[in-house]
């Protein structure tokens, strides 16, 4: 369901321990209301992200490690490693759905249990899954990746007028050698081009966190700076 609002109310959270950099305090700007696709895309361009129904942006007291990243998909140049990932996975097929399927949650639970048992999302639950990956005011798309008939990865993605926004990807840890996280970003870039979108928003690059420092691999990319969006190196 879309809203026609052109103004939104922004609140701010209390500081709390950062989930990504344990020695830092985290604080968020938060929007807890529905917005339409155009307004949400403008917020993305200002560095905001979506989690469930909430829109947020880090505004931390003494840290600026979270760097918003987007990829101009028509300029993407594949690295040798990314070309190998695509070649290695030619036997897989994918589709896009607007529905959460019964097979989604078991794969998500396995992914969190085996890959993120040391993080704030563990243990997974169906309630947490729904709150995190569904939205009342926007219809996410679910890019499903299959090995024959077996679901092995899902990329939750928002469609905006001029861009796609990557919300979250989870995959079967037993298929780790396929580099499925990398593959799903490449598929989102491909889908954005097919849909004639300009950007894929990837969220925040955090150089000091090993699980959040991969977004510079998609070249060329843009970082949101005090001077606006700038190409990174």
From TrEMBL:
EC class of this enzyme? transferase
Which compartment or compartments is the protein found in?
A: Cytoplasm
Q: Where is the N-end aminoacyl transferase N-terminal domain?
A: 16-84
Documented EC number(s)? 2.3.2.29
Gene Ontology molecular functions: arginyl-tRNA--protein transferase activity
Question: Can you tell which superkingdom this protein's organism belongs to?
Answer: Bacteria
Occurrences of domain N-end rule aminoacyl transferase C-terminal (ranges): 104-224
InterPro entries named among the record's database cross-references: Acyl_CoA_acyltransferase (IPR016181), Asp_Glu_LeuTrfase (IPR017138), N-end_Aminoacyl_Trfase (IPR030700), N-end_Aminoacyl_Trfase_C (IPR007472), N-end_Aminoacyl_Trfase_N (IPR007471)
Q: Which SUPFAM superfamilies match?
A: Acyl-CoA N-acyltransferases (Nat) (SSF55729)
What reaction does this catalyse? N-terminal L-glutamyl-[protein] + L-leucyl-tRNA(Leu) = N-terminal L-leucyl-L-glutamyl-[protein] + tRNA(Leu) + H(+); N-terminal L-aspartyl-[protein] + L-leucyl-tRNA(Leu) = N-terminal L-leucyl-L-aspartyl-[protein] + tRNA(Leu) + H(+)
Stretches assigned to coiled coil: none
Which keywords accompany this UniProt record? Acyltransferase, Cytoplasm, Transferase
Record family assignment: Belongs to the R-transferase family. Bpt subfamily.
Its biological purpose:
Functions in the N-end rule pathway of protein degradation where it conjugates Leu from its aminoacyl-tRNA to the N-termini of proteins containing an N-terminal aspartate or glutamate.
Quote the protein name from its UniProt record.
Aspartate/glutamate leucyltransferase
